[in-house]
Amino acid sequence: MARSHLATQVPLKVSFLAWRLLRDKLPTKANLISRGILSVEDHFCAFGCGAVESAQHVFLSCSSYGSLWSLVSSWIGSSLVTTKTLSDHYIQFTTSACGTRACRSFMQLIWLACVWVVWT
User: Fold this and answer.
1) Rounded distance between C-alpha atoms, residue 29 and residue 53, angstroms
2) Domain boundaries, the chain
3) Residue 31's pLDDT is what?
4) Stated pTM of the model
5) Is the pLDDT of residue 116 over 90?
6) For residues 12 and 77, what is the distance between their CA atoms, to the nearest angstrom?
């Protein structure tokens, strides 16, 4: 996540979560398995959808939380962002709706709030 003036407008823990998320450093089951902390049998998504729990899955395609982005897009009146990677999603979500700095900051705030709610 690019350093912006928004970083001072959100709690540090939210900025840190986003930083870790965009670098695939969250303790998802897929990451914990790759580090040898969990066994391969424990790879299923915590939300019960039956897929492998990776950051990409939880935040973009999980049947429990993936629809959040379409609801938010509908709520704010912007087009739905459909990307394969979280970094692309962040960039497109925060820049596609408008061109002003204030609007981009608002979109960043919405993205960070959604990410925080899903993870916590």
Assistant:
1) 5
2) 11-119
3) 93
4) 0.84
5) yes
6) 29
